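Ticket #504: bound-state structure for nicotinamide-adenine-dinucleotide.
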Amino acid sequence: MLAHIVVRMSERVSHWIDGQVVAGTSGRTAPVHNPATGAVTAEVDLASASEVAAVVARAGEAARAWRGSSLSQRAAVLFAFRELLHDRSDELARIITSEHGKVHADALGEIARGLENVEFATGVPQLLKGGYSEQAASGVDVYDIRQPLGVVAGITPFNFPAMVPLWMCANAIACGNAFVLKPSEKDPSAALFIARLWKEAGLPDGVFSVVHGDKEAVDALLVHPDVAAVSFVGSTPIAKYIYETGTAHGKRVQALGGAKNHALVLPDADLDVAADAIVSAAYGAAGERCMALSVAVAVGDIADPLVDAIALRLPKLVVGDGAAEGTDMGPLITREHRDKVAGYVDAGEAQGATVVVDGRAADVPADGFFLGTTLLDNVTPEMTVYTDEIFGPVLGVVRVDTYDEGLALINANRYANGTAIFTRDGGAARRFQYDVEVGMVGINVPIPVPVAYYSFGGWKDSLFGDTHMYGPEGISFYTRGKVITSRWPDPATSSVDLGFPRTR
Ligand code: NAD
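RESOLUTION: The complex was predicted; output attached.
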């Protein structure tokens, strides 16, 4: 029972500065767990403000040099990094599973989605092309260029320890910036693995750094005058704090927050397609995805068969160690989070929801931070299981009579990251895409994470700032535009003989 406080395989996870591992000096560390066993597997260094300042200083020097690299040199590094990441994805996936808990296939999936962003960034010579207007006035040409910002920071959540850093660093580095990553202290080792791959790919030392830490390190980045921009992904209260503090200190900030994603299931939906999609999107990665579907809005008489179809599927999901063959769902990230999610189920039941499948009673491994799948029916908008982001394997079903009622419910929600509609009616789907006030929409697609050549972002309390992450908006975020207006006198008018004919 005391497994969570026993250090079984104690390792130290340190910073990555100037192309090498550097031990922290603050004297503060945090434990890293294997959530499947509850054991502490490592201690991660937590940086002080002065350690952060040293990282930023080194990154500043590296940024000045890296900015001078040619676009083809940068593309060559990105291609090499892409190959390494691809070839070593199995190793990285094992690291992710050992600290996050998600199943191996899911960890591989996260890396594949991150890899897409690296592939996008290899196109940097094309992506940084500007426009050119010849003869804007007589003898005057106007053109624009995009230049890097300098040192940019990424602060990332526990739930995608490889993909979310890759959303940011691939474009930031391709654009000629130095990138400082402050990963989640809960699963910090993937960041170091990625750092090693960058070095092996030929990235100059200092262009990619990792500084581990908690609020102290984050605050040091937010107020540092030489950090030009901050990309953040995490929970809504912290996203808001990051946005307000970073912008108050003159930085460009994109801060993606939490979510409460609804699936609208119309009466004409293909029941099996919808149930399969909802089960995978609600319970995959134990619901610890910002694009997880956590509310199914059942319209009209599809509600009973939908609840039955989902309930039928849940006992088939194998819950266990994500590293073991055949596991469908791993543990939650920490014991505290597991208990908090179970507490939401208690509250939902007390507030009148019907517990159709009870994850609290599931037969799950005793060690580790496991909770079974929970399905709650007759959820209403006042219940905390509806109002709050639970971030666990809990799906609530809200019953409504009409499309309009379902749409109004979704549009009234403070979160607006992703949503999905299930229907066989193209007109209804098109109307939904027009009406719904959510940043990413799936039509018979449960997790509509955009491909890397679009950009990712929600609306309302799911995004602070106005730039979405990665894709074209990522290139724009990590560069500043400069417009040049130039006049060159016609050489024919020159008093010096340049060898041009005197007529045009
Ligand atoms: P979190 O907000 O607790 O932590 C995110 C980062 O902020 C971590 O690096 C953490 O060290 C740092 N942090 C935490 N508390 C801080 C504080 N008080 N001051 C300064 N920094 C602080 O989020 P999490 O639990 O790691 O991740 C889960 C959350 O992230 C969920 O809400 C999920 O929806 C969200 N998320 C959103 C997206 C998206 O694209 N919108 C993607 C993934 C995760």
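RESOLUTION NOTES: The CA atoms of residues 146 and 443 lie 35 Å apart.
TICKET STATUS: resolved
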